[in-house]
Amino acid sequence: MADLAGKKALITGANGGIGKSLVTAFMNHGVSIVGADQQTNMVDADYWLAGDLTDTKYCDMLPHNAANLLGGLDIVINNAGIIRRGPITSATDDDFIASFSVNVEAPFRICRAAIPILAKTKGSIVNVASCWGIRPGPNHPIYCMSKAAIASMTQCLGHDHAHEGVRINAVCPNEVDTPMLRSGFSARGLDPNTAIKQLNSTVPLGYIAEPGEIADVVLFLASNQSRYMCGALVEVNGGKPVI
Ligand SMILES: NC(=O)c1ccc[n+]([C@@H]2O[C@H](COP(=O)([O-])OP(=O)(O)OC[C@H]3O[C@@H](n4cnc5c(N)ncnc54)[C@H](O)[C@@H]3O)[C@@H](O)[C@H]2O)c1
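A: This is the predicted complex of the input protein with nicotinamide-adenine-dinucleotide.
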């Protein structure tokens, strides 16, 4: 993926499990990075734009501000996300509002602002959706609904903006070993290491994904190797279906 060298990218959720791996992978390919997150000191990036994705103005300005720092913009990765667990009968208004704000509205605002900028560079957007946005897993209706929305947005925008030379695709992971996954086990009083060992045995390839396995697919979707892909939802699941 030599074509990535010299490109300029904005990555949201850059301090998270997958986000840190994305920053490292893209930097290793010679890409200049603006990382966006609430906290900004956890991993090397060329620049940081700290902020809260529930702040609509922050989202609206993020692509423009990243392009100003980098001297242009070629790649946007909407990676940040949150998960609120439990059936709808125990969900609060805040669970719904926060989930849709971070997982759907923020990528919507960022895509809307980024597409005219990326049209100048024939750039691309990669959204991080989820297998659970394609086929819902149990007892996470708000998360699944929000990931279905970003998956649908990817398909819509991928087709609507191909004529401008902007490619928009999504990666849809199943379980990945990150703080997001581990926090679910801790919340249920389980030891995350033991729980992940058990989870590994449910995956046909023998283990749940490490963040780097997702980052490699994002690299592909952002690179010229995927130049004919628009609006694709690429599942990265080790052979494990959603059941
Ligand atoms: N871990 C998994 O099993 C898994 C599976 C499928 C999809 N995903 C998706 O992958 C993406 C990355 O998840 P992860 O597992 O690395 O999670 P993570 O919790 O490790 O990282 C998420 C990052 O997003 C940031 N973020 C959250 N809310 C924010 C806000 N309001 N403003 C700014 N930043 C905010 C957090 O600070 C954090 O750094 C998410 O979209 C998630 O839904 C994860």
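The CA atoms of residues 49 and 191 lie 34 Å apart. The chain is about 45% helix and 15% strand.
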